[in-house]
Design brief:
Layout (H helix, E strand, L loop, with lengths): L1 H11 L7 H5 L13 H5 L23 H9 L3 H36 L11 H27 L2 H36 L1 E3 L6 E3 L4 H8 L2 H91 L1 H27 L1 H9 L1
Antiparallel strand pairs: 1-2
Helix pairs in contact: 5-9, 6-7
């Protein structure tokens, strides 16, 4: 029915049975709608695994549509939505497995608490007396066999040994039925528990029944759920490990970059200090050079003055005396203006 319905939906559309009035308010459903089952889109829906079993989850409340699943697989957003749907499915499956494991633990406890088969009950008085008589006869016959053997009477000893074997068979017959009954009772109570689906099984059951259980819906369904959880966890751990390695690699790259930057700055600072040191050295050298030049010029000036020293002094002294007389003559003239003017008039 589901296959036929899907075929009709594909040919005629999901709204094929709606009236004209209903079609007016009808909205086409897309794969990313909340009403669509994301579990069915990405992997499997657990509601489909346990139909008509003791673990039946009932029908899924969301839409399962092969056409929508095909649209999802062809969508360019497929890879972006797969991790989201898988994470939701893993969460749902983990809850199922947790409930199942709880049932398995209870089953183990129940099996452990089962009473072990009781020891065989004691024989009745009559059988005990018969058993004692037989054991006494067997003992006497064995003693006779030993004596006959020492006397070399082999044929008689062998005849007595056959009687001993018959008595041992009678002794076994007294106890064997009771032991068989206890053994059968123990085998009936010996059960086993399936660790995959939590079902109780008869230990050492026939191969056909065991195979029927292994291929049953419940066992196969829980096997798929457990396999998916293990696969999801492995992929997640691998992704986390790759992310951790990537972060470590990036951290290492940043550390190397910081070291390179630090080394570059150190070299730059060293170069700056070297340039400043060279500038200071050049300034100091220029300062000493200027000082030496000043000293040299001063020394040359003193040497020239020394060479011209005698002549210059006599000249200044003579000039000084002549200058004094000239100054005296000028003062004398200025003090007798009348005399000079009388002479000029005569």
């Amino acid at each position: 029915m589901d296959a036929q319905r899907a075929l009709l939906d594909e040919l005629m559309g999901a709204a094929r049975n709606l009236t004209e009035e209903e079609r007016k308010g009808y909205k086409e459903v897309s794969w990313d709608d909340k009403a669509v089952c994301g579990f069915y889109m990405v992997r499997f829906c657990p509601h489909d695994l346990f139909v008509n079993t003791r673990s039946d989850l009932g029908p899924c409340p969301r839409i399962h549509d092969p056409k929508l699943k095909e649209s999802f697989e062809k969508s360019p957003r497929h890879d972006a939505y797969v991790p989201k749907f898988e994470a939701e499915l893993a969460q749902f499956c983990e809850k199922l497995v947790m409930d199942l494991d709880r049932r398995v633990r209870r089953g183990r406890e129940r099996l452990a608490q089962e009473v072990e088969p009781a020891p065989p009950p004691p024989l009745t008085a009559e059988k005990s007396e018969q058993l004692s008589v037989l054991e006494e006869k067997i003992k006497n016959l064995l003693e006779q066999v030993e004596s006959l053997g020492e006397a070399g009477k082999v044929d008689e000893a062998e005849a007595l040994m056959r009687k001993v074997e018959i008595l041992n068979a009678e002794k076994t017959a007294l106890t064997q039925p009771q032991n068989d009954k206890v053994l059968m009772l123990g085998q009936e109570k010996k059960m086993a528990l399936c660790e995959i689906c939590g079902s109780f099984l008869v230990a050492n059951d026939a191969a056909e029944r065991t195979q029927s259980h292994v291929t049953g819906k419940q066992h196969v369904g829980y096997g798929m759920v457990r396999d998916f959880i293990n696969e999801f966890k492995t992929a997640k751990e691998k992704a986390n490990e790759e992310e951790r390695i990537s972060r470590e690699r990036e951290a290492e790259e940043r550390r190397k970059q910081r070291e390179k930057e630090h080394e570059r700055r150190r070299r730059s600072d060293s170069s700056d200090r070297e340039r400043h040191r060279d500038k200071d050295h050049n300034r100091e050298r220029d300062r000493y050079r200027d000082r030496d030049s000043d000293r040299e010029r001063s020394r040359e000036h003193d040497v020239r003055g020394y060479r011209d020293g005698g002549r210059g002094v006599d000249y200044r002294m003579r000039n000084g005396r002549n200058g004094g007389r000239d100054r005296y003559r000028d003062r004398s003239r200025s003090r007798s203006p009348g005399k000079h003017s009388y002479r000029r008039s005569s």
